[in-house]
Specification:
Blueprint: H1 2-22, E1 32-38, E2 42-49, E3 65-71, E4 75-84, H2 88-95, E5 102-113, H3 115-123, H4 130-158, H5 169-174, E6 185-196, H6 200-209, H7 212-226
Antiparallel strand pairs: 1-2, 1-3, 4-5, 5-6
Length: about 230
């Protein structure tokens, strides 16, 4: 009888140890998901989610399994896009030496990506951990900012007296297409923190009345006369 009880205790302790060792969900932190890489089975392509029951026998073999944790929260970032309209300095020098045809936009952007998409990025060696995922999402954010700036400039050029304040919140989202470079990234939100838009009507007037070639030639002639 004592041997039976002792054997039952040993079996129970061993069962608890096996269950606890293979219980992957206890390793997943809140607001994260995990990707499991094993030596015996390679990459487990199903992402491991917080609060979801997961038991993996691969943990029973020492050093066989490694778990990478990734944030599931939207990645928030800020990007500034600046530049100058073509030949803007030349036209500004004729109009007013204190004027410029430059532009600048600062965007607050939040992006998300599904756990399944991160598994594919990990599989393709495009990300290796949560920091490299942030870098990947930062690159997506820079692309979003550039696309948004392009749209705002096109809008300002085609719409007289265009104001950023009149832009509807969902308008930018509808006109930014990331499918080519970052097909798995979703734009959670985008807002214009600050903006500077050049006077397109004045720019077009200067562009129609003056040729950059003529301006440069006139400047060269003046320099030669002064010499």
């Amino acid at each position: 009888m004592k041997k039976t009880i002792f054997c039952l205790i040993i079996i129970s302790v061993f069962s608890i140890y096996v269950y606890w060792t293979g219980l992957t969900q206890r390793r997943i932190e809140p607001d994260t998901f995990g990707i499991l890489q094993t030596k015996t089975n390679g990459l487990i392509e199903k992402p491991l989610l917080f609060g979801e029951k997961n038991w993996n026998w691969q943990y029973l073999l020492p050093t066989n399994a490694s778990l990478k944790l990734f944030s599931i929260e939207p990645h928030v970032q800020s990007h500034t896009v600046s530049g100058e309209l073509p030949s803007g300095k030349l036209y500004a020098s004729i109009y007013d030496t204190n004027y410029s045809f430059d532009y600048q936009f600062t965007f607050n952007i939040a992006v998300t990506i599904s756990p399944e998409a991160v598994v594919q990025l990990y599989k393709n060696n495009q990300v290796t951990d949560n920091e490299s995922l942030k870098t990947y999402l930062d690159c997506a954010g820079k692309t979003i900012a550039q696309l948004a700036a392009n749209y705002l400039l096109e809008k300002a050029e085609s719409t007289q007296d265009f104001r950023i304040e009149s832009l509807r919140k969902d308008e930018l989202l509808r006109n930014i297409k990331l499918y080519k470079d970052f097909p798995s990234v979703e734009i959670f939100s985008i807002a214009v923190e600050s903006s500077k838009i050049p006077d397109y009507s004045l720019y077009e007037k200067m562009k129609n009345n003056y040729s950059p070639v003529n301006i440069n030639q006139n400047s060269t002639l003046k320099d030669e006369e002064n010499d």
